[in-house]
Queue: 4 jobs
Job 1
Amino acid sequence: MENRPQIPPASGMALDDIYYVIFRHKWKIMLLLAAGIVAAGTIYRTKPPDYQSEAKLMIKYVVDNASPGPAESDAHMQSTDPQGQTIINTEIEILTSLDVAKKAAEDIGPEKILARVGGGHDLMQAAGFINGHLKVVPLTRSSVLAVDLKHPDPEMVQPILNQIISEYKNRHREIHQPHGNFSDFYTQTTDKFKNDLADIEKQLKQARTNVGVTSTEEAMKEYSKAIEKTAQDIRDAEAEMAFRTASFNALTSLSFPNSKVTNANTNLLPKSGPAIPSRVTEEYARVSKRLANLWARDEELGHEYLPGSTIVEENSFEIKKAEAQKQKLEEEYPGIKLSESQMLASKPQSGPAQPADPALNLSNQVVLMSALKSKIDYLKSRLTELQAKAAKIADVQPQISELEQGELLVRENLQNYTKSLWAARINDALGADKVPNIIVIQEPSPPGRDWAKRYKAMMMLVVAGLGGGLVWAFLIEFYLDTSVKRPKEVRAKLGLPLFLSIPEINGNGWRHRALGNGQLRLKNGNGHTPAAIGNGTPEPAATLEIAPWDQKHSLRPFYEALRDRLLGYFEARNLTHNPKLVAVTGSSKGSGATTLAMGLAASLSETGDGNVLLVDMNQEHGASQHFHKGRPNCGLDDVLENETRQTALVQENLYVVNANSNGDHLPRILPKRFASLVPKFKASDFDYIIFDMPPISQTSITLRLAGFMDTVLLVVESEKTSRDAVLQAGALLSEAKANVNVVLNKTRAYIPARLHQEI
């Protein structure tokens, strides 16, 4: 089964990861933090804040008058409540405009404004300085503006702010009320409208007098009702006339069957009293009937119209006229009242029917029919008269309506211009710098320094230094430095099994590598050097160290821990054959694989179970020889023979040989030669054979021999070897069907133990 490492998915950042980054790069973070503190201190010493003055303005409302016209036609008042943000923003733009700053600089003098900021007489430069140091902020949920001005000269900041507020008021009036002084204009216009109104009223009075009404609309309504009522009366009279005619014909047929109906009206008149002409009787009946109708009409009009109205007056006139006619007939014909009584007696009475004189009934019917005819004629003439008057009013109504509309328009304009005239006079009285809708609720304050903002800027520099250090640290940790640093990264980011993590050891106050780079010198029990594992060059005395198998070696506990892990690994996999082949290689040069191989071999030899052989497979050692007591040390073939391996013994049960001692060229003879040695390995009395292999590379012999090993220990140097190199080395060993276990060497514990401790 192929043992190819699998990279697990990246996990989130834990608290110990943050601790690790901070404590590992603490000097970088502290350096940038110190730089931020120094920068803040420099600003505090060299750049104190400018003097400032603050004022507050309340914009109660805005009167916008776009042209010199009527006050209510062009001008309108805009509220500046919290929802009127657009109006407030407009006022801020006016206040912070360059025109206002320029006018203020011109009034104060640009040389005074620029005296503390480089000097000069440039007006635009002074205006630009004011505009750049002026700040206007609307207060939340109010119509108040906080105006702030800064200047290095404490004697100038307050006068400049006062001048800015004054110029802002003038500019506000120029923009919203650009009519200036128009008192004379409003006076002349008002007088003109007064004259026009007088002419229109005169024409309107003359037109109403011609038609005899005060209001054409009301008159037309009254005449319309009168015409409708008169038409209805005509229809009622005609209906009654038809009824009387039918009754008369019926009575004539019943009372005088042999007489002609046409003669009945004269032959059947009553004979009592002096004879009264029929025309007089008919006239009297007509006048009486008309008078009764007029009185009924007057009662109806009294409910609908006010006393003194035109139609009521006309009806009263007709009543008087009818009464005069009736009284005249009564004076000329005193017996006419009897005829009236007879006519009333001829009306049907309630109760049982009484016999009546047929001649009398016919006479009454004739009188009533004559009266109805007169009534109908009168109503028709009345209807014609009303229609004629209504037509006359309708003819002049457009002219009167036009005059009335003109009167209304002129009166409205006169009223608006009168208001504008009063407003102009008030503005003239207030003066050019008085704006009633803008109130200064706080005058410009005395000059003072705003240290709070400067402290805030200094704190931001300190925080920026700290943040920059943290960003630098995390940037290096996660993007720039891709080396393997911690044991958890071997499992989490590389997907390889971790055998052991060996820390970097400090000695005598100086930091040195926990495992050497292959140039350590080995010493046997007699104090001699049996093998120079290196490049064959004698090393200076200053490089001599304690041998890895010495009990006093600082890494001795980790060699023993590695030994125990290895024994447990073999037991877990039920590997009981001898010898067990273990290869120790590095992912790069200087990772400490050679020293780790020697320490592992020494710790295995101390178990007392059998002999341990350490084989140096490094090709770069060339043709160097192992010497013991002045004699050449034996090679790999010799150490497998009991008679010739004494020179390879460095301590009890531990033998060290060089696979290249006979001068063979390893890349050429391996793995063929190694395969021939396998039977000798099995026949030997060695329990463990530790192979010190060269670092992993495309041409390394380690890859060609890894498949023969029971396990391969891949030594990774912490903070030196990149993750890509370890992944590539693990992939190559897996392709060689090797069982790979990682040893992370020279790790550093940056996090204090009280915060986090990594096993």
Job 2
Amino acid sequence: MKLRQPLWHKLGLHGILLGGSLLFLTPYVWLLGTSWKLDKEIQSEEFHLLPQAPMPRAVSPYVDERTFSIRPPEYVDADAWTTWIRTAAEDEIGRAVDAWLTGHPTEFVVQADRLRGELIEGVFGNVRAVLPVETWTTTEPVFRSTVRNAVADRMISEAFDQCYRYFALGKVLLKDRNYHIYDLTDKQHPEESWRVTDGTAEIKTRVVSRREVAVVGYDFSGSDAFEIASQFKLPVGWEDFKRLSISFRRDQTWHGLTVLVEINGRLYRSRSEKYLSEDNFWEASFQLPGPDDQRLAAKLYVLLDEIERAPRYDHGLDVLRLRVVVSRSSTPRALWAKGTENYKKVFEEVPFWRYLATSAFLAIANIAGTCLSCSLAAYAFARLRWPGRDLCFVLVLATLMIPPQVTMIPSFVIYRQLGWYNTLSPLWVPSWLAVNAFAIFLLRQAMRGLPRDLEDAATIDGCGYLRTYWHIALPLMRPTLAAISVFTFMYVWNDFMGPLIYVNDQRLYPAALGLFGFMAGRENQFTLIMAASVIMTLPVVMVFFLLQRYFIQGVALTGMKG
């Protein structure tokens, strides 16, 4: 009679399993969440497991109310903080902010209450960092006086720069085919050189780092896009035109940005759309197709595709007309843009698709070679009788005790003499020679459980050793072969030492070595490193979860499959 388990026992067991699964997934969730963040999000004082959701704004410039927050020092009494300290600090900082705003008007009208409140929160963070500890325990008049003296215009200016979001255009640089660089906007007033050609927008001048930029105030309430344009006389012939670099100030609205270039009767459009993602100046380069596209170097530019030819695109000899189109993003589109931003940068800066293709080839070649060669050797050890069989099997198992560091140099010398250095051959050819002693052992133990009656029946039907192996033994070893395939895939996909020793050509890099090369020089770009790491680990996780049933069956298999 089968005893029925109590309900609390089942709930407790499932709770433990679910908790263990969540604990196992936490590092991967953190890895995935970091790959979706902006650099400023991981540099903030507060830790967040998940990234901030993008908030597309219909009107810009605007004040980002998520920039600052008021947090009391940990040693401040909670009752005093709620009773008078917070109110006193906001009052004194507010007076200084009001005086600063009077002398520093913004180019465009923004919500005054929101701007004032955000500046108070931002200045409070700076004041809190400079006030002595004893200030927080003194009387209210002394506290107000200390805060009043601590507030400086520099603090307000810094807070304003951090929370005020605006879209602007700065320099427009041209690079010719001889790599000479020309500033097309030199000595031009922004409000005179740029003009609005479509949509609801307005252009005003702002001085940033002692240079004038064109701040664009726009409103998407009446349309879903706006366009601004400018016209430049090229210092070189249009046939020498190579690349156009435009300096943008992004406003973190995640709206799409497209560039169109009209020159010599041709209309070019940027192949991929960029987004107003962060809140800093960013230089985007747009280049005509050419030999640079075939190189493995980082492609830090967007290609310009010719889409039309017509006389209306001819504005005179060597005259270039530049059009910048900003289209409104919905919330789903902004979420998709932010989620894929860092991954696009990874594939733009390094040929990661080529690395993944190389790793996929090595994984398939090693899996096929290991399963075929090791299963043949295991069949010979398990089902055939020949002199010295057990001694040879002991010698095969003995190779498991040899550290790979011992055979590293002799193997390198042999492969170099064969002419295989700086090729992929040392990374997949040995797998076809039954060098995996663990796979031979696992398959041999599984084959030993097969009944002899199956072989006798195959022999009566006229099968030889190879046909018996192919039609009888191999189909019954599918779970074990699946387990070996998972082991081999995980080893080959994550192998770093082998490619590092034998490969010196970037075109032959697998994913592990490509990830290492990508990380070099990007120690502070954590979001890009996390995005590349997700790309690297995702196939391993998917293979393991999709094949875990066969994986467990293959390891546990000791007899014939029922």
Job 3
Amino acid sequence: MVLAEQGLTVLVIEAGKNITPELALSNPSSVTSHLKRLWRAFVSKSHNIQSNHPSFWKYDPDLFTNEKKNPYSYPENKDFVWIRGRQLGGRSHTWGGVATRWSKHEFAIPERDGFGKWPLSHEELVPYYERVEIALRVRGTRYDLPHFSNPILEPGPNFTPAEEAFKELVNARWPNRHVVLSSGMHQEPVIGGGNPWPARSSLGTTLALALATGRVTVITDRAVRNVEFDVRTKKATGISAVNCITGDTEKYRSRSVVLCASAFESVRILLNSAGSAHPDGPGNESGLLGRCIMDHIAPHRHFSFPFTGTDASIVYPAGGPHSIWIPRWVNLETQDCEFKGGIGIWGGIQRDFRPVNRTGYSAGMLQAICEMMPHPDNRIELDNGKVDAWGIPTLKITCELRENDLRIQNRGSRILDEILAATGSKIREVSFFNPVATAMAARASKSSASPGYYIHEVGGARMGASPQDSVVNSFCQVWGSQNLLVTDGACWPTIGWQSPTLTMMAISARACSHMAEKLK
């Protein structure tokens, strides 16, 4: 969108298929959807890993990647749950729609070691946050908290009556824990001119706006194998892709290349691009390509909150702006906990989170979103010559919780329990629309859920101040090949605690604005 709006001609290359709005908005509880899920989870085993995640049972199963055609591996007893979507729009079709900014504390915490430094400040990103919020028409309410910049928002929904009562109890018990409304995306189509896509989907917002410029072409069913380079200049000259329908190799030339294929897929392309121009892989002078991957650690509780107000029987929407935050209150100006990093709480009460209701109570769900620390041994690498259905080398993912991660996870679980105890809430088992989904969702309640489960994976092509400590610079340009950009979560040095999507998009907008100016 940013490149096209600045006058450049853009080719978007998508590995997956084109889809219809009907698929993105299809009924997840239909008999057809149930049969597809059961077949793929237990008979064909094409979605053996992803079927362990509640989102597979919440959305149409056609929006999730076939694992037999797109395999990956991990070491024994170190599971990584990689939830993927190969179609135009990718995982934006199954995104919950929460869109919140980072604060200054996520970009610069003095007690972190060298692996936790950003070469980019919160202040530098604010204009791009604003640009993305306007483009996406993010809804919500101003936070008015000292360590947050206030977003540009369209009016959002209010607290539910039960959330209002919960907020009063929490704020009275802990004055530094501010219960605020979240911000995020409409779940229904909102773009004018008859756009039928949900706004959480890129086809409903940014890609639609890009296509409206007339300077963007989209091709689907092309799996990118690697970036092509000029051996003399080391610059990117285009990409090599496999036609997923014919199996033919196709090459596309361009003045610049932007990888934004989701964090691990972008790194996979970089790893597969090692050659005479970049023997160890593009930007890999530091040896950090593929290293320091992260995902959020998120213990959570489904519960019943005591509430008997006049509106207690009403159930409100959940997700996006229809939710609440308790923004981080630990390790802000100084290190004041036994762990590094931050914790924030997300969830809602009297919303459609599907726990079992009880008379005199409103159903609720809270997640303690905990920041995983970057560790060089948490990494992705090519998997010993194994290939996918199109002959492209696949990934081996090694990611486990380290000492600090276990400390912050334990604290997050204790915080949830103390909040529920202080508000008179009772922990309940989750109940979805079918018993299989209920059983699968119960796994997510365990604080020991595998990395990847929260679907916020980042890292692998980290941003830094020099080729010795990173893979890309502060404008997402690969060291040694500055017309090659990596603008998704792969470039993140740390993960913060907030939902990552809005920050990913702001970083991408900043990088592409800079690239467009350079090309001009």
Job 4
Amino acid sequence: MSATRAFLIAAALALALAACRGPTGLPTESPLQLLPSRATPVPDALDHASHDLAAAALAGGPEDVRARLAELDASDRERRDAEGPSGLPAYGQHLADATQPDPIAYRRATAALLERDDVEPVLRKQLEDEVEDDPLRLADLRIFESRKARLARDLNPFSEAIGKSALTAALMPVRVAQAAIGVLVAEHMDDPISLQERQALSYWKEFVETQPDAPESRALLGRIEELQSEWFQMKRKRSAHAAEQALEAGEDEVALVLADRALHYAPEDGKASRLREEAERRVEARRADLARSLAAPRETPPDAGDPAADALAVALLDPHGDVAASAAPLAERGAAAPLASEARFARALAEGEQGRESEMWEQFAVVADADPATHPMARHARNLEDSAEQNPYEAFLRARREGREEQARVVLLGGLAHGARDRQLPRALEWLLEAPSLVGTLGGIPTRLIETMASKPPPGPAVPAARYLARYPQGEHAAELREWLVDHEEASGNRVRAYELAREGGGFDKDRMADLERDAAEQALEVTKKQKRRDLRLAMLEDIASRFPDTDSGRRANQLVRDELEGASAQSIRISRGFLIENPRVAGPAGLGLRPELLDGDRSNGELHPDGVKLIGGRTLEFSLVAESGKEKDPPRLMRQTVSAERLARLVSLLEETAQHNALLDPLAEVKPDAQRDLFFERARLGVSDSGEEDDDPTAASNYAFVGVREKYGLVRSRESILPVDLVIQGSFPDLGLGAFPRLRPPKETPDAVLYR
């Protein structure tokens, strides 16, 4: 054969092979490989021994359990030489240990089991959790953490004061003195029983209640009584201090309740008794004033039979009566005349109903300035003036003024904007303790000013402004407040709300309305894309397309509606490429049976897209493959394939098992609950996923995603140092502090710490 002919034959073969794939390595055949055939497993001696041990644990006695466990160990030794260890003896020993009635003996046996080398990682993690769940061990650990936390609190301020004085040694004595004062104040404010000690008290009580006959229980009674006394002391201290603060704030009823609570923990406490007496005196005085204000005079009023008063009464009762004209004669008689304040009040109401808001509030101000003792309507007028519901414009002005004053205080004084911190000391001494921090506070004014300018506007004035527009849409101040509210909502990031307000008013120019409409459509589309339920997402997209038809976001929403309808599926359970790479058994023949070349990183022979594989309902899978361009950022090429019931059952079983296995070994690989996912998996395992009985309700669809830990959290995981200290580099421009210093790391709070605060 000539060389030219051989070359042509080789080229023809290469072209024929290339024709089996897409233009850039995209597979044209199935992404799945054939499942390997499996013979029906026959129980061997190890299986029979495991069965006998389980039966003995459920129905036999301790001797029977030990005998069956010995048989299991012997069967495993025979199998180990030929096929390697099975790991079943460790599970069998754990099962035998679980039959012990004594929890203490069970935990000791579990700890001994951890010393074996044949314990699988998942079982080892379970055993470690059970050993750690020992009330006495947890109590000792909490006591140790309490001491460590207190030591860190007392040592770290001195370490920081010395370390920050590396460049300013002259300030070291001042900083050390401040640290000493801070430690003394912290000791003064410290609770009699720390958070960790409260947790330890709970563990000791649990042990004594569940194991009253244990030798440790008798030794714990004294410690429990001591800590319980400190617990009551802390509750009394907190309740008394809170009652004192409530009295200072004028909340007399709250102070009375808190003082009673303090007396409940310490019935003879003098401070709590004095607080209760003062709170009770104030409450009784307020109730007496209220009773006097509700009493009606029995004598005949001196103005009975006055024609002007009769005319005003008739006008008030007549829906078409002229109240303003009828009230004028009485209102003009003089401030001391009978019914003068009532007449002015009625005339103010009439002017308000006629749309003259300014005149109404001017009349109310005149009535409110009168003496309530001689003018009964003065109190009502003052209440209307102060009411945020009745006088929303004044409430808006007041809230805006208070917001500006609050921002000014924060910029100027920082953490001291509301006074010295409460240290349960005399107020003058608390301010004296804050004096050293004034230099740093004043030096931080530029930083706080920049932060205030960059932050969102305070939300306080928006509430009365919106209330005014709802109550007086055509009021005197409606245009002013609507323009302010539009600017406020836009600055706060509520672009949809800003557009709706502007559209309601109709007083904005076309360019401003176009900008508001564009921004509102963009925000609405961003929010809609985050909606997981398909039916709600479709409804929201259709609303955006109809409300904003002339914007790019509106047209994009219209396109997304069509895409949603075309690609709708009963389920959308995704298995990412990262998860398949981290868990090759799921992708391999025992699970999905994915072709290996789709995960080898070679784009020339086809590659799975990071989106991975989706279970979209029934027995149909959707594969996302890297686009022809070879770029992962481009939309993937989608391929759907209906698989056998056996393959689907294998996949979901191994997928769920692997996810649970990973979650036991790695907290970052947690499996979040999803009822619809679990229901679909159960139907797939039973082989009825394609029975046509799927729920068409959109709420029955699952959008769960199995994502790899590295894909979810990145390539680098944070690791906690084994050293008990952290090296901190810290600087502060206001007080010229710069340095490096060690800081003793305080213990982390447990997840249930919130229950013991």
